[in-house]
Amino acid sequence: NLPFLENSLCPPFPNSPSTIIECLKYISTGDFPPGTKGHSFVHDPKVANETDVRAQIRLQFRDVTGELIAVQRSMVCTQKGKKTEFKTLEGIITRTKHGEKVSLSSKCAEIDREMISALGVSKSVINNVIFCHQEESNWPLSEGRALKQKFDEIFSATRYIKALETLRQVRQKQSLRVKECQTELKYLKQNKEKAREIQDHLSNREAQLAASKENVKSIENQLDPLKNRLAEIEQNLAKVVRLDNEIKALDSRKRQMEKDNQDLQQKMEKVFQGTDDQLRDMYQNHQRTVKEKERRLTGCQRELDRASKECQRFNREKSELLVEQGRLQLQADRHQQDIRTRDSLIQTLAAMLELDGFERTPFNERQINSFHKLVKERQEREVETASQLMREFAEKETMKQKQIDEIRDKKTGLEKTIDLKSDIQNKKQVELKNVKYELNQLEESSDRILELDQELIKAERELDEAEKNSNVEALVLEVQKLQNEKANLDKVLQKLDQEMEQLNLHTKTITQMDMFNKDKVDKEEQIRKIKSRHSDELNSLLGYFPNKKQLEDWIHAKTREINQTRDKLAQLNKELASAEQNKNHISIELRKKEEQLSNYEDKLFDVCGSQDFDSDLYKLQDEIEKTSKQRAMLAGATAVYSQFITQLTDENQSCCPVCQRVFQTESELQDVISDLQSKLRLAPDKLKSTESELKKREKKRDEMMGILRFLLHTFKRNHIIPNDDNLRNKLQNVNRDIQRLKSDVEEQETLLGTVMPEEESAKACLQDITLMERYQTDLRDVERKIAQQANKLQGVDLDRTLMKVSQEKQEKKHLWDTVTGKIELNQKLKQDQQTQIQQLKSTVNELKAEKLQISSNMQRQQQLEDQTVELSTGVQSLEREIKEAKDQLFPLEATLEKLQRERVDLINKKNTSNKVTQEKINEIKEKVKNIHDYVKEIEKYIQGGKEDYKKQKESELDEVKTQLADCEKQKEKISKEMGTIRQDIDTQKIQERWLEDNLTLRKRNEDLKEVEEERKQHLKEMGEMKVPQLKNERQRLEEKIEDLKRNHSLALGRQRGFEEEIIRFKKELRESQFKDAEEKYREMMIVMRTTELVNRDLDMYYKALDKAIMTFHSMKMEEINKIIRDLWRSTYRGQDIEYIEIRSDADENVSASDKRRSYNYRVVMIKGDTALDMRGRCSAGQKVLASLIIRLALAETFCLNCGILALDEPTTNLDRENIESLAHALVEIIKSRSQQHNFQLLVITHDEDFVELLGRSEYVEKFYRIKKNIDQCSEIVKCSVSSLGSYAH
Asked: Would you state the pLDDT for residue 160?
């Protein structure tokens, strides 16, 4: 329940009590009042002189479960420039559960939905029934479309009607889907049968392909062992050739090794005659001696590096010590400068402060301490003097400020007195002006009273004349007579409607017969078009125009002919593929032999570098001989150079060992010895490079000899050299067969290209032929229906036609319209006369009220005159007091200004004196601080021991210089020793070379023995192999393999033909019409059957839901109309309308295939058996009363869970008699619903008589009055019904 409000609100002023309903509606549904979007719902910020205005609505009620709920909605209206912006703030719902308050914010939930759920009624019922605004209260008599929309929302029928429409549309779509499935199933069945036929052909070809693969596999199984055996023989023969090449290579290597040994012996000075162990021991001892000298040389190098590092370290220390010595010297110089500067500053400050005993420098420590003590005493005296001066100035400034404050207080008191009395004077002047204006108005009102008396007499005379001239009762009798005449005409029209309905039944039969005849003509035209479209084509193909079965048989025969042609074409393609395979095989064999020859020539070119093998081999032999001679010369040169050096050094000869030339000087002799020693050192390296080059050329020669023998043997074995005419003849025969097969294939393809278009053309005609037969069947059905309709029309009397009856009905309808117009005209005249009398009565009452108001105002004239005199006297007295205060204020301002100038001068003197004293003190402090800084630096240098540290670094520098000189001497000594060791190592290299040559000679002799053993082993292996038998077996295997390969190629050709046919069949099966044809047919059949079942279910659901909606609608409408009828009869006091009711018209003949059901609502007024639409035919009072009663009936019907109803200005446009009956009806409603715990009636009205009528019952004792307080804000006051008489206008 809403917070309990008494049953009426009666404001004396237009304070907009409708705002209560607007607030209730907004907090319940979130909808703003009509004609506003929120801006005018909140107080205007411009009027309130604020930037923004905040508003809040709070409501407490109990929901459908009895639970206590508090709702709060807030909003703000902000002024932005010329526009106002409205914003809804956060809303809160608070529930009390188990004694605790639980809040839910609009940020977490939708407040509108929560409120509708809590109140237990829909939003449309709240807006249109419970909290309906006065501007929208007459919606039951609005135009048809708006009325239908509101009733649909109240009945909540829209969603069910949409559900019906959805069911109807779905069923229509499903019906179309069934027809599409039936058409598609026919073609899917044909595709399924064709796919099955192709699948049978595919299975047959796959079986043939499997047999062909087995044949190919058996041939390959026969080929594998033969190829393995042939490979084994080829491997053995290759091994024989390899052994032969290795034997020849070993012979050549043996000869070359023997020659190399002879050359090495000739080169050596002498051959070592001892054993191998003695030679190795001698070589190892020599190696140890050389390594010892090299190790000594390495040690000397390390000592030299170590001495160099020591020198570098001493140089680095020397540099660091020199840098440190320079830094210490700089610090000592700075120390002396600081002492001189300190003494100079002391002299300067002593002279400034006039201190004696500080004229001569340098100063000792006692003098410096005495100076600091004197300066400190002088500083303290200066500070004390400055403080005393500042205290004197402060005392003077305080006295001046006290005088200024006293004068200022007096001045301020006078100014406040002047302002206060000026404000009082202004207010009295404004009040005097208002009183004078009111007196002027009262003087003019005396003339207005005379005018009102004349207007009142005239208005009363016009009212009497209007009441005399009124003929309302005669008009009522005439309206009743016309209504009886209208009822008779309604009966005649009803009979004519029945007669037209019977005629319509026969008309329907005739119309159906015409439709069938038209359908028959259409079918015949369709059949003629199909025959004319395909007649020439089918006659050219078959020789006559066939029916469906004949055309299908002809197409089947053509399909069989095409398949036979395809089979023959596939056989020719297989033979052609086999021939192509054979041709490829022969071409590959011929190409392979030619490629072998080319490969052998390439190998020869790779080894020789050219195609001229003989010249390259001869050139290589010549280069080998030259390189051998060069190696022998280099080997002998080592011994010769060693002997020459020995002779020149040991025998003390000064002549050349070759030309016997005598050397004139020792230097020439040393130059020759050095030249010989350098050549001797280079000889071993040149000898190694020459031997390496010789080995490479010998290896190349052996390869050329081996490849030459291998090529000659291979040419003889493979018969590559003679031309293979047999293969070329075979290739020509195969080419002739291929040409013949290609011509046969072209012939069959031409035949196939002729037959297939005929088949396709016939298939294209088959669909139209099928359609034509269906048209013929439909034509027979139409002819049968025409005969049935003709039988129905036999014996029917058609003299009275539908047109005659319709014409008679139009005449009666015109007469009915004339009578209705007369009734409406008389009712309008009656309403106009009543309205005129009511307006005249209102005018008389208004004139009487205005006269009474002016009379009461005239009594206040003497009181206003006395008030004018009193106000004038007060204004003059205030002017005198203000003038006296201003005269006292002027001298005070002059005195205050003088004292302020004296105070400013005093402050300036104080600041100047203080500044001079502070500058002098700060200067002394700064100089003392500088002296202290220099003293600290001097003490820091002395306490740091910098002078002793400087002497220590100078002694360290002298010591480092001595160590550096010793290190340089050691380096020079080590360098000399390293030169001697290097010369000894060079001399030992010659002896090492002689020992290495002896070792090489003995190793070559051992290698020569190994080569002879390997050659004997290869000769033994060649003798064990049977080379002639292997060659004969190889030739026999090659011939057998050739025959099997030929058969293999033929089998592969047949297999390829089968594979191509299988690919073609699979490609056809992958086409869209054959791929998954059977599955598509089955799925489409399932879809069609299930869709038909679904359609039947949808039709059942549609009818059930429609019946339920109609039952619910009829029950509710019957209940509403019963309540409306009772309320109207108990409320309306007129005799022209017995009762009113709501009528809803709907089409009864509906099914799932028709359009959705539509209700057309209208409010009718009934008198006797006549019902008229109230819209446009009723008075304003009848309109208000009808709307109010309909809302009360809807509330009774739909508000079981929410027994709240608010009535806004229910007595508008009602006459006194109907107002009394309405009050009586409301009291009866309150009485009948008084026991209902959630019933609450809220009435807002300006009619005090209506409130008094409600108050006469025992159920209404209090009411709430809305009025404005002193601040012009509305407030609600609870009043008793018995106090209504005290509120007179």
From this structure: 75
Task: Report d(CA 385, CA 213) in Å as an integer.
Answer: 135
Contacts of 246 (CB under 8 A, 6+ apart): 1014, 1018
Q: How far apart are CA 951 and CA 1168, in angstroms?
A: 147
CB 396 within 8 A of CB 907: no
Distance, CA of 1069 to CA of 74 (rounded, Å): 74
Do residues 624 and 694 touch, judged by C-beta distance below 8 A? yes
- Which tokens is 774 given? 């269906």
Among 97, 23, 105, smallest CA distance to 58 is for 23
> Which residue in the block uniquely carries the two structure tokens 């015949």?
524
- Residue whose C-alpha is closest to residue 160's, from 1201, 1158, 1148, 1160: 1158
Q: Do 1179 and 1187 meet the contact criterion of CB atoms below 8 Å apart? A: no
1247 in Cβ contact with 1218 (< 8 Å)? no
Share the mean pLDDT of the chain. 76
Binding site listing for Zn(2+)? 656, 659
* Binding residue ranges: 656, 659
* Closest-CA residue to 921 (of 263, 384, 145, 535): 384
**Cβ atoms of residues 898 and 345 within 8 Å:** no
Amino acid at 1067: K
Q: Is the pLDDT of residue 1086 over 50?
A: yes
**Which residue's structure tokens are 């429409």?**
165
Quick: pLDDT tens for 1163-1184: 888 888 788 888 888 887 788 8
Nearest to 130 by CA among 138, 122, 140, 118: 122
Is the distance from CB of 92 to CB of 107 less than 8 angstroms?
Answer: no
- CA–CA separation, 826 and 477 (whole Å): 10
What proportion of the chain, given as a percentage, has pLDDT over 90?
0
More confident residue, 799 or 1073: 1073
> Is the pTM of the predicted complex or chain greater than 0.70?
no
Predicted local confidence at residue 707, as pLDDT = 64
With beta carbons less than 8 A apart as the criterion, state whether 1030 and 236 touch.
yes
To the nearest 10 degrees (0 to 180), the angle between helices 946-1024 and 158-267 is 80
Name the strand (E) or helix (H) holding 1207: strand 1203-1208
Return the sign of the alpha-carbon dihedral for residues 741, 743, 746, 752. Answer: negative
The whole-number pLDDT of residue 1153 equals: 45
Burial class (CB in 10 A: 0-12, 13-18, 19+), 1265: buried
Tokens 């009936």 -> residue: 1193
Inter-residue contact 640 to 994 (CB < 8 Å) = no
- What is the predicted pLDDT for the residue at 652? 54
Which residue do the tokens 């001679």 mark? 629
Gap between the Cα atoms of 268 and 635, Å rounded:
7
Closest CA to 6 of 1255, 1273, 1253: 1255
Residue 1052 exposed, middle or buried by CB count within 10 Å (0-12, 13-18, 19+): buried
Determine contact, residues 633/620, Cβ cutoff 8 Å.
no
CA atoms of 440 and 866, how far apart (whole Å): 15
Quickly list DSSP for 624-670.
HHHHHHHHHHHHHHHHHHHHHHHHHHHS---B-TTT-PBPSSHHHHH
- In this prediction, residue 1287 carries a pLDDT of 47
- Cβ proximity of 70 and 94 under 8 Å: yes
Pairing relationship of beta strands 1170-1173 and 1262-1268 according to DSSP bridges? unpaired
Maximum Cα–Cα distance across the chain: 189
* Residue type (1 letter), 449: I
Please give the Cα distance from 1205 to 117 (Å, whole number): 18
What share of the chain in percent tops pLDDT 70?
84
Tokens read off for 417: 């007195």
Lowest average pLDDT, out of 50-59, 787-796, 830-839, goes to: 787-796
For residues 544 and 541, give the distance between their C-alpha atoms in angstroms, rounded to a whole number. 8
Q: Mapping DSSP to helix (H, G, I), strand (E, B) and coil, where does residue 1153 land? A: coil
